[in-house]
Amino acid sequence: MAKEKNKKKIGCLIIFLIVLALIIGLVVFLVSMAKKGMAMMNVPPYGEVAVKDLSDYVNVSGSVSSSDSVNVTADVLQKVTQLNVKVGDSVKKGDVLCQLDSSALQEKYDKLAASAGKAQDAESYKSGILRRNLNEAKNNKVNALNKAQTAIDNAISARDTAYDRYNLAVSQFNELIEKINAGEDDENGTLSKQAEAIKEIMDELYPKLPEFDAAIQQARAAYSEAADSADQLIQTAQDAIDAEQYTTGNDSVDDDLKELQEQIDACTILAPADGVVTQLNISEGSIPLNNNLMMIENTSDLIIRGKVSESDILRISEGMKCEIKTSATKDDIVAGSVKRIERILSSGTDASASGYTVEISIDDPKSKLLIGMSATAKIIVNKLENAISIPYDAVRGGENEGYFVFTAEETDQPNMVKIVRKDIEIGFEGDYFVELKKGDLKEGDIVFTDSFDSNTTLEEGKIIADPRVMGDIKKQAGLE
Fold it and tell me: What is the reported pTM?
């Protein structure tokens, strides 16, 4: 009997477990289907009417640099025997930045001082002067070619400006002629007089256009001449060095000793100003390739240099306030202002490198910005505070037919709303929101945006699920 009772208990347990498994499976199935059903529910995207500060701005990207920088140069090119700084170091005026090898110069000085009456010692010193002359000739070539290239760039800019003025005059003249031919001129012939005045400008500009083209050719020819002349001076300096070994000098020994001492002193490179070392062109044990050894920048007066496109340049002016951000300072906004605008278009190898250069000063002396940081700045063109605003992509219609939005009104059905069209008048336009000047809307009302699913149709009077409620359901169901 005990065995039969145990068998019945085991049988009941098995049946209970089977029923429990079926119930769990059914619950999982129903939950899954509920999630799928809610996933199929189309929740129209929407925004809310809200009070916001709106701003119209121009974006500028650039890097933090100093408005005051100094090139540290050397009068002699000798091996660097000691380098006391690295990039990022702060220095004070008069600090010893590096030491160049003066041993050869000192040896010449000692020999000349010991044998003042020997001409060969004087000639040995003279050879150093000749080598310096050769280096100066090479440096002068670089400077001369840079100036010549600037003249070419200026000539091209002048030509482009002249052609732009002429083309604008032609366009204005043609528009006036079309109006005159259409009978829009008044009895005083106002349009005809304007057309005649513009025609005079065209007649004055047109003969001068070839002169601008010729100026570019002349500037390029001057570049070639400067290059040839510089090469001749370099060759002359080299010839003097080659011939110096066959000549004897008659220079004053005292003058020679003075010059050598100046060169020896020049081997100790001192900081010309306070600042931070931002560029280093030498390393310990090397011989500088040119006389530009390093750059020191003043970190107390930082700026951001960037480009502004042609379409935005006339919207900004010097003195406008700016909001500066960097990836290093994250959400912190640093105050700035437009310090300088270069009103000459500069071009580069790609579109992003073209535009008008703008300098933005960093007004907060305690900012955490460092030289070299990449930064973005918003130049605030206009600003409107505490404006009743709606999302920009909720506005429909146009200037001619009028603007309107689709909004939601409560119904007597739970969690259901009715789509209603409401005419509005917009005002100040910000980046993502626009001012609501007129319209039967209040703060907190929802407006449907234009990024709808293809299955969604907005029709006035249509009853749909309240998107706020449906959005909450989808979040709770893990579908968002």
Answer: 0.44
